[in-house]
Amino acid sequence: MPMSSPLESLPSTPNNIPSFFFGHGSPILAFQESDAMAAGPMGEYAGPTGPLAAFLKEFGPALLQKYTPKGIVVFSAHWETRGERLVTDYGDNNPLLMDYYGFQPDLYKLKFKSRGDSALATRVVNLYTQSGHKARTTSSQEPRGEDGRGFVGPGLDHGVFVPFRIMFGEEFTSVPIIQVSIESSLSPEDNWALGKAVAQLRREGILILSGGLTIHNLRERACFVPKTARPIYKEFDQAVLDAVSIVDAEKRKTAMIELTKHAGFRASHPREEHFVPIYVAAGAGGTSACVLSSVHGAPTVAFGDALVT
User: Fold this and answer.
1) DSSP readout, 81-135?
2) What is the pLDDT of residue 5?
3) What backbone torsions phi and psi does residue 74 show, to the nearest 5 degrees?
4) 254-289 tens-digit pLDDT
5) Per-residue DSSP letter, 300
6) Is the distance from CB of 46 to CB of 289 less than 8 angstroms?
7) Rounded CA gap, 272 and 266, in Å?
8) What's the rounded Cα separation, in Å, for the pair 229 and 221?
9) Are residues 212 and 237 in contact, defined by beta-carbon separation less than 8 angstroms?
């Protein structure tokens, strides 16, 4: 399948890989097509035949083709810790944490086979400690959250494995994956600093991905679909795209931080855990940014050097 134009325009720079904020979607991405269609407008838009799924199918292969990464470091809206970064060191088989509830049985049988890498996990921990951050690895013997299957366990959460299944396939062991927790203060500056601390990895052949959403209000599910979302949501979503598109790096950072004062911010994020991953990606990135996909509420943005905007 040929790449879409924004993906095609990305420079192939394996020794200076951009960091990426990507719309990680929801478990609806993994629905059977019939179940998604039966779920109404949200299922149709956010499901396996919607625009986000279509983009992710192109995004993953493009990343592998452009950058041939040696490893992937991923951040997710669904794993946060306060004052200490936890870094997965799961060995040859990354477990899955199915941290969602009330879905059909098929969603608790999803597969995504991947592996970790102890050397990469240690490298990440060292970069954090060198930057003055507390950090440590966590093994598959240490639970990190509640699983919808009825237990507490470790694993990559659904903000990682649900989109990664689409991006890389159900079996993806050629490139190791480790996950790092975001900062639960939810401060833009704190999470920006978390990205900055590991920015060197981009020049070591490591792909940094940070997943979240620009609209996430479960109290008003109409917000997730453009044809049912109130104008305040669309205005905020556009404000995000406008902010990340500013050419000057310092002005871009200021505009991105100021997004938390936008009239639509709190409507879009009653709690902003799904929004702050964009700051991690920006902190890890370079001096330029490029919007690769403007899917409503789930855009993807590259933060690198000399990107075409």
Assistant:
1) ESSSEEEE--TTS--B-----S--GGGGS---B----HHHHHHHHHHHHHTT--E
2) 80
3) -120, 140
4) 999 999 999 999 999 999 999 999 999 999 999 999
5) E
6) no
7) 8
8) 8
9) no
DSSP letter at 2 equals P
Residue 132: partners with Cβ closer than 8 Å, 6 or more residues away: none
Q: What angle do CA 53, 280, 30 make, to 5 degrees?
A: 20
Helices (H) and strands (E) in the chain, counts: 11, 10
Note the helical H segments in the chain: 5-9, 33-38, 41-46, 51-67, 118-130, 158-168, 188-197, 231-244, 249-258, 265-268, 277-284
Residue where the block lists tokens 């919808």: 148
Q: From residue 243, how far is each of 120, 149, 216, 248, 272 by CA, in Å?
A: 32, 40, 19, 10, 17
DSSP, collapsed to helix, strand or coil, labels residue 3 as: coil
Query: Burial level of 227, CB count in 10 A (0-12/13-18/19+)?
Result: exposed
Type of residue numbered 161: F
Give pLDDT < 50 ranges for the chain: none
3-class DSSP state of 136: strand
Q: Which two tokens stand for residue 251?
A: 């002005």
